[in-house]
Design brief:
11 helices; about 65% helix; about 475 residues; 7 strands; about 10% strand
């Protein structure tokens, strides 16, 4: 099924082979009126010029007009009987143009043989008649511009040349005005032609559209029946998938709960043995240090540090488990105040450091106080840690408004990170720096992401190695900054 073509096409192209046929039919439909106008105007012109032009010349000219008009009437009659088809329309169009051209030549000969040399008034009347005929041709025959031109140019140009050849001011002016008249009337004819052709194309487009829509209707009805059957099948499949999905969700929820409980249980159970290991290592270092060689002391120190590191890891795992299991207790939170308390604790833990910290006032949100405190502690703690090797360290906690929502951020000018790792950095145990560079367990950002997701928000990061980083985060329920 081919959709209807657009209107902006070449009339002479084969896009609509019946377009030119319709133009020719319009020419012939106006032919009778044109022939009648020719005979009437010829009779009036002969009558008016009878006193200034030779009777013999007038008679010969009138007979020529009559013979051409009769020939055109015969041509019109034959065309009507033939009921022209588009395949043969070119021939009929050509004959019509030839007939108009002959008629135009005869009318143009009036500007030579019927020209009243001694009477300016009769000259003006002759120009008036020829101009009127040209106007009529613009309305009747401009549907095919070649037909209009074939008539107009030979009918008017001889008189214009005769005016210009006279040489005096009046005739020069009359010739110039006549020439301007030809230009203007041709422009009008061209516009009429464009409008007529556009109307014809629109008619063909309408027919095409009706055919197209009828075909489309049949296709749509067929497609609708097929879709209805497919919808029934899909509904059955969706119902089956929903049952399976609900079952899988129950299994995932059950397994997740079991896994979280297992991690919590294992982590909790490991705390006591680690405390004992660390405690015995401390006792050995204090009481038996003098009896051990350097290698023994090194082993004990490594055992002590490993126990401390494992304790931290277990505490972080417990925090991660608690976040998943904890019931959210929604309350109004003052984030600016909470951040200030966290920064105060960081300064007390490392009083030798000089860090410029900027905390915007009036930051607030709805959320669980303990979980949001864990989130800010990790983000601000990371900023504090990763600026430890930066001169003129700066940390900023603020918010910005984008797409009618508040986006909070923690920014620092510390170690930064490579942008290619910004998605992996939120995975548990994934570290972007070595233990020697910056201590940690690699769980902090996983905890932060878990807290954000528990609050229906999102978190992402931007950074450059050696130039700092910015962590952006949102909450599903938060208040705009005042």
């Amino acid at each position: 099924m081919i959709p209807p073509k657009q209107l902006g096409r070449n009339p002479a192209s084969s896009e609509h082979p019946q377009l030119y046929a319709e133009q020719v039919r319009l020419l012939y439909s106006n032919a009778q009126l044109g022939i009648v106008a020719t005979l009437v105007n010829a009779a009036v012109l002969v009558f008016i010029l009878r006193t200034v032009v030779s009777y013999l010349v007038l008679t010969i000219w009138a007979v020529c007009i009559l013979l051409v008009s009769i020939a055109r009437l015969v041509q019109f009659s034959r065309f009507r009987r033939a009921l022209s088809e588009s395949a043969h329309v070119g021939r009929w169009g050509t004959w019509f143009v030839i007939g108009l051209a002959i008629s135009g030549i005869i009318w143009g000969s009036a500007g030579i043989f019927l020209y009243p040399v001694e009477s300016t008034i009769h000259q003006e009347f002759l120009a008036f008649v020829l101009g009127g005929m040209a106007i009529g041709a613009a309305g009747a025959f401009s549907v095919v511009m070649s037909a209009y031109i074939a008539y107009t140019l030979p009918s008017l140009m001889p008189l214009i040349v005769r005016f210009l050849a006279a040489g005096d001011e009046i005739h020069m002016a009359m010739g110039g005005m006549s020439l301007l008249f030809v230009v203007l009337i041709t422009g009008i004819a061209f516009r009429i032609s464009k409008v007529t052709l556009a109307s014809l194309r629109l008619g063909f487009e309408k027919n095409d559209l009706v055919i197209y829509l009828s075909s489309a209707k049949d296709d749509l009805e067929k497609l609708n029946r097929e879709l209805s059957a497919e919808i029934v099948e899909r509904r059955k499949a969706e119902e089956e998938l929903n049952r399976h999905r609900e079952h899988l969700e129950e299994l995932v929820k059950e397994r997740t709960s079991e896994l979280e409980a297992f991690i919590y249980s294992v982590s909790h159970d490991l705390r006591a043995p680690l405390r004992h290991i660390r405690g015995f290592a401390d006792i050995l270092l204090e009481n038996l240090a003098g009896k051990l060689d350097e290698r023994g002391k090194t082993y004990l120190e490594r055992m002590h540090l490993s126990a401390v590191k494992m304790s931290r890891l277990i505490e972080d795992l417990l925090s991660l488990s608690r976040i998943s299991l904890k019931e959210i207790e929604w309350t109004k939170l003052d984030l600016s105040k909470a951040a200030s308390l966290i920064v105060s604790d960081l300064r007390e833990s490392d009083p030798s450091r000089r860090v410029e910290v900027r905390i915007a006032e009036g930051l607030s949100t709805d959320g669980d106080e303990s979980l949001i405190t864990i989130l800010l502690t990790n983000l601000l703690g990371n900023a504090w840690k990763f600026t430890s090797k930066t001169a003129n360290a700066r940390i900023e906690f603020g918010t910005l408004l984008k797409d009618e929502r508040n986006i909070f951020y923690v920014r620092d000018n510390g170690a930064g990170f490579d942008e290619q790792y910004r998605e992996k950095m939120f995975l548990p145990f994934h570290r972007l720096h070595t233990e020697k560079e910056f201590e940690g367990t690699g769980i902090g950002l996983a905890i932060v992401k878990r807290v954000i997701h528990r609050h229906g928000g999102d978190i992402w990061a931007e950074g450059t190695t050696g130039k700092g980083s910015t962590f952006y985060f949102t909450f599903s329920n938060h208040h705009k900054r005042h």
